[in-house]
From TrEMBL:
CDD domains per the UniProt record, alphabetical: AcNei1_N
Residues in FPG-type domain copies: 299-333
EC number, UniProt record: 4.2.99.18
Family recorded in the similarity comment: Belongs to the FPG family.
Keywords: DNA damage, DNA repair, DNA-binding, Glycosidase, Hydrolase, Lyase, Metal-binding, Multifunctional enzyme, Zinc, Zinc-finger
Name of protein: DNA-(apurinic or apyrimidinic site) lyase
PROSITE patterns: FPG_CAT, ZF_FPG_2
EC class of the enzyme, as a word: lyase
Lineage top rank: taxon: Bacteria
Length: 333
């Protein structure tokens, strides 16, 4: 499932390439035909991400709400102006380590293209090509056909004169009024990139500390905290050396606060790099290896049966909240 960092990257891409422009909307699949008709021809006026949901505002107080869910993704084609907050000064996508040291001019892709500008969300076997603008370099040219051909089941296509975004497989795709957007966001927990960080910490801590629910479930509850999915849950719990089954109300307050502060840090790294990097204190060679391979990027996630990187105990795999949970029974006791 796309986690919070991906949705924030999508929102920034829409901000750079759609806001201020008239948008042609269609539903090639037909399942969002009425909604697309309401959006068609309107100027995009703003965009925001909250947790795993994105809200794209159009003139006339009309909003598009998209929740990618387990399998959703946006595929981009045409000209893409890279977000300068996640690009290096020379216009290329850059990588930095967790202390901010610049490491690479070129993006380091993993096998799933997680750092891609062209498809953000659930992994895709095929990637659409893009024609990069003068602000960005390094990705393949398209084949010259415009607009690009429709491939597969596209729920919504948003098209400007130079950029195309195709939405596939979302859990939710709907038109909302401003009041409906406010109501939707009000049901979500704090997001470090949206809410005041200190206020978010207080909200998160207060909710967790009164709940009998296991902390491993609370971190996945979007009403408790926004944006955390299966990968970040496992990694945050390991980094805190916290047993996933511990009731929230039994987790020491300072540990709860450290969970929030660690989420603030990891989310920022994810948005910047496009990858869920959760390993600390890597040298440049280790960083490049981790950026290229998920096997070198995480402490416990997808390491069932393998030795813990710290204590060599076999990593356990169980189901919690209908999702796979990876954890170390020695380090997290």
């Amino acid at each position: 499932m796309p986690e919070g960092h991906s949705v924030h990257r999508i929102a920034r891409q829409f901000d750079r390439n759609y806001v201020g422009r008239a948008v042609r909307a269609s539903s090639p699949q037909g399942r969002f035909a009425e909604g697309a008709e309401l959006l068609d021809g309107r100027i995009a006026e703003g965009v925001r991400a909250v947790g795993k949901q994105m809200f794209l505002g159009f003139e006339g107080d009309t909003w598009l709400r998209v929740h990618l869910g387990m399998y959703g993704a946006w595929d981009f084609a045409g000209e893409i102006v890279a977000d300068p907050t996640i690009a290096s000064a020379n216009g290329r996508m850059g990588q930095t380590n967790q202390r901010g040291t610049f490491l690479e001019d070129e993006p380091i892709m993993d096998a799933a293209g997680e750092n891609s500008l062209t498809s953000i969300g659930a992994p895709r076997k095929a990637r659409v090509h893009v024609r990069m603008s003068e602000q960005t370099t390094g990705l393949p040219e398209d084949d010259g056909e415009w607009p690009p051909p429709i491939v597969g089941q596209v729920r919504l296509r948003l098209l400007t004169d130079v950029t195309c975004a195709d939405l596939r497989g979302p859990t939710a795709c709907q038109v909302q009024s401003p009041d409906e957007v406010i109501s939707t966001i009000a049901k979500l927990g704090p997001d470090p990139l949206v809410d005041d960080v200190d206020q978010g910490e207080e909200r998160f801590t207060a909710v967790v500390r009164r709940k009998p629910t296991p902390i491993g479930l609370l971190l996945m509850d979007q009403a408790v905290v926004s944006g955390i999915g299966n990968v970040y849950r496992a990694e945050l719990l390991y980094r805190a050396r916290l047993d996933p089954h511990t009731p929230g109300r039994d987790v020491p307050e300072e540990v709860v606060r450290e969970l929030w502060r660690d989420w603030v840090k990891l989310l920022a790294i994810g948005v910047e790099t496009g990858q869920m990097m959760t390993m600390d204190d890597l040298d440049p060679d280790q960083w490049r290896a981790a950026m290229a391979s998920r096997d070198d990027r995480h402490w416990v996630y997808r390491r069932a049966g393998l030795p813990c990187r710290t204590c060599a105990t076999a990593i356990l795999l169980e189901e919690m909240g209908a999702r796979k949970l990876y954890w170390c029974p020695f380090c997290q006791r």
